[in-house]
Design brief:
The structure holds two protein chains of two kinds. Chain A is of the alpha/beta class. Chain A has helices at about 10-25, 35-45, 60-70, 90-95, 110-125, and strands at about 5-10, 30, 50, 80-85, 100-105. Chain A is built from five helices and five strands. A five-stranded parallel beta sheet of chain A has the order 2-1-3-4-5, with helices on both faces. The longest helix of chain A has 16 residues, at about 110-125. In chain B, strands 3-2-1-6-5-4 form a six-stranded antiparallel beta sheet. In chain B, helix 1 packs parallel to helix 7 (about 190-255), helix 3 packs antiparallel against helix 6 and helix 10 runs antiparallel to helix 12 (about 420-430). The chains are: A alpha/beta, B alpha+beta. The interface of A and B includes residues 13, 24, 86, 106 and 108 of A.
Chain lengths: ~130, ~450
């Protein structure tokens, strides 16, 4: 069964990018354009990988993680990775303490490099 | 002569001497007692001075101490608001009588301000005249807050017969006054009481001044922290806003250049390559600015971990070998045996190495070589990067690790301009680890950058 990925990203260009890159690798991809939609989809759960942006409209990434701690998802999400361009160490550290497996600074990665990282995170969780 | 008379005379004389001696001893004892008491109160006040409490706490403690130790009926400290030019009581003895008196006045302490220009109040006169004042009339210190009538009524309740006012000064600056109330009627204080109080006044002034200064510093600090956070948030936000479109440019260019959307000509690929390199430069710059902002607001935290230096060197070697090959520079990676395990922030050390090797590649001509490695010493490990570039002039060496300390002639020598921030950031990170960073160079032959990390 193909792996399921959820991309929670408000920037349309970047969202389309990750959608295209992941689909080309035959992953099943869902997207969310704001925090509320992101929380909704994460709560339904069942994703092998969630790529979570921190700066989101309506509800930010950290708040999503906090809410999920209080009301966990119906089916658990295997790995949550913070995808951020934010420079605040503290926000990233908070995300990790709230259950994110790791973080990636988007501008550091070309599409192939990003994909490689996503796979590493997903493979890490299945062991 | 009557012998009997003689004896009486001698007896009286002896009695006199005895009496005088007794009086002298009594006086000395009394003075000792006063000195003791004074020292004890001074000690308590000194302790209050040394605490960094706010003004209201300090003044209340002074009032309580002075009243208890010196057996006074009451004491008030009033302070000047220099901006409003008013005098306001800030601390007063908390006895039931005083409480009742305040109820009769009908206002809380902080609403009992009097203008410093008002001449009918003895406390203000004491301050402006820089002189101790004594009075038996309560109205003298309550004017214009109450009528004579109310003043008399209060007098009945609190039973204070004498009021003494001491102005408080910090150097030339008037702070306010300490007003004490005695239950006995005196035209003046006894020498003992005067002495004690006079010695206390200076210390009281110091204590209050210090507390006021402390409050000012606290406020300034808070303001600075808010501004600092605002600046940090701004830089963080700005970098986010800059990085997002740059990610799009970088990524979509990569997709086209790597023929994900169909084949492209070699020329098109070359153009796109330049777009990518330019974008990478921009992204580097934003990253550096963000690092500097973090360093300067003291928000850099080291995440220390123990890891083998060999692993890091392997990563770095893999990273830079293709780039070096492109530039036809020989990159010599170190031999990985006998390298220590170090305790450091791995990401930061990686960043430092990337910066130094990146610089080395920039400043070395084609067919040159870049070598990196480590020398293990007893208490530290020295990690070095050597290039065969044109070298650095001795007078330029000190400028290297300063912010924007880019060398003048580097415009010609380097393969592309740099911001001058990279080495500054390296130095900050090395310093945070407790290490040192330095350069050695011979003009025409090259340079070696070394940084040490404690083991």
């Amino acid at each position: 069964m193909p792996k399921k990925v959820l991309v929670i990203e408000d920037d349309a260009f970047l969202r389309d990018l990750y959608l295209e890159v992941l689909k080309a690798e035959n992953y099943t991809v869902d997207t969310a354009i704001d925090g509320e939609e992101g929380l909704q989809k994460m709560t339904s759960g069942g994703y092998d990988l969630v790529l979570l942006d921190i700066m989101l409209p309506k509800l930010d990434g950290l708040s999503i993680l906090k809410k999920l701690k209080d009301s966990p998802s119906a089916i658990p999400n295997k790995v949550v990775v913070v995808l951020s361009n934010l420079g605040q160490d503290s926000a990233i550290a908070d995300a990790i303490s709230l259950g994110a497996k790791g973080y990636m600074i988007k501008s550091d990665y070309t599409p192939d490099q990003a994909l490689k990282q996503f796979k590493t995170y997903m493979d890490g969780s299945s062991t | 002569m009557d012998p009997h008379l003689n004896q009486t005379h001698v007896h009286t004389a002896n009695e006199d001497i005895l009496k005088q001696a007794n009086e002298a001893i009594y006086k000395q004892n009394f003075e000792l007692a006063i000195t003791n008491k004074t020292l004890s109160v001074l000690h308590d006040l000194y302790a209050i001075t040394m605490t960094s409490l706010d003004v209201s706490e300090v003044t209340q403690r002074i009032v309580d101490t002075v009243v208890t130790e010196l057996n006074l009926a009451a004491a008030i400290i009033s302070l000047i608001d220099s901006q409003a030019q008013t005098l306001t009581p800030v601390a007063i003895t908390r006895s039931p009588q005083i409480h009742k008196a305040l109820e009769m006045i009908g206002k809380p302490l902080n609403e009992l301000s009097i203008s410093m220009a008002f001449e009918g109040n003895l406390i203000i006169n004491s301050i402006t005249g820089k002189q101790r004042q004594i009075t038996g009339n309560l109205l003298d210190i309550l004017n214009p807050l109450v009528t004579q009538d109310i003043a008399d009524q209060i007098d009945e309740i609190i039973g204070i017969k004498t009021i003494v006012i001491y102005p408080l000064f910090a150097g030339q600056k008037p702070l306010g006054a300490l007003t004490i109330g005695l239950a006995k009627k005196v035209d003046d204080l006894s020498r003992a009481e005067k002495e004690t109080l006079e010695r206390l006044i200076d210390l009281v002034s110091i204590a209050i001044d210090r507390a006021a200064l402390h409050e000012q510093v606290e406020k300034a600090n808070q303001k600075l922290q808010i501004l600092d956070k605002a600046k940090d948030d701004f830089v963080s936000l700005a970098s986010h806003e800059l990085r997002t479109p740059m990610t799009a440019i970088k990524s979509y260019t990569w997709l086209v250049a790597n023929e994900k959307e169909g084949p492209i000509s070699a020329k098109a690929k070359s153009h796109l390559d330049k777009v990518q390199k330019s974008t990478d430069r921009l992204i580097s710059l934003v990253n550096e600015l963000l690092d500097i902002s973090r360093i300067e607001s003291g928000r850099v935290n080291l995440t220390m971990e123990k890891f083998p230096l060999a692993t890091l060197f392997t990563e770095v070697c893999d990273e830079f070998t293709p780039k070096a090959a492109e530039l036809t520079i020989k990159l010599s990676c170190p031999i990985l045996t006998n390298l220590p395990v170090i305790n450091a922030d791995r990401e930061k050390i990686h960043q430092i190495l990337e910066n130094l090797i990146g610089n080395a590649l920039k400043f070395t001509p084609a067919n040159g070589s870049v070598t990196f490695g480590a020398v293990t010493k007893s208490s530290e490990v020295d990690i070095f990067v050597t290039d065969t570039g044109s070298g650095i002039l001795p007078e330029d060496l000190p400028k290297l690790f300063q912010k924007f300390g880019r060398l003048e002639n580097s415009l010609i020598a380097s393969r592309g301009p740099s911001t001058g921030l990279g080495l500054f950031i390296c130095k900050q990170y090395v310093d945070l680890h407790g290490g040192r960073i330095w350069t050695e160079s011979t003009i025409g032959q090259g340079a070696t950058f070394t940084f040490s990390l404690p083991l």
